[in-house]
Amino acid sequence: MNSAIADAFRRQIIIELDSCYLYLQMALWLQEQALPGCANWMRKQAHEEVGHALILYCRLASRKANVEIGKISPPKREFATLEGCFAQFLEHEARVEESIEHILRLARHCRDDGAANLLEWFEAESAAREEEVDEILKRLKITNGKRGPALLDLDESLAEREFRLPEPLRKGA
Ligand SMILES: [Fe+2]
Q1: Which residue segment(s) compose the domain that 83 sits in?
Q2: Which of the four pLDDT bands, split at 50, 70 and 90, describes residue 173?
């Protein structure tokens, strides 16, 4: 494995685990707001982030690249509003996506098709998640900041999210 790609994968492992930390913190905050469905959705996302880190880790380990575990900083603990919390999720995902795109360009440049295929999966996953959160934000707008039936409906639907083992791990990435 090209050393620049291996380094980028190592950095991305930290970014994915950092996402996990942030989303776990968001889940705790959502739980404090008495929104167990929203908290469930965020916790499941945090769980998937661990999966994303593992995909990259397994790829490095299978290529005998030296996997160095980096430091994860503590995330922000307070979120002003529910909408603000999900908007921050979107902003964070956009930064993660930028990083993935950078590694994807690198993988294509180095003609590492295996790494490029994996990164294309990450891109598609991120786009699907952003679409989902866009929808959540639209539904939150309808609630007008009120704790009424529209918010409780949304919370109920987010309670249904289940953990899905990321596809590359199912295939034994
Ligand atoms: Fe991720």
Answers
A1: 3-170
A2: low
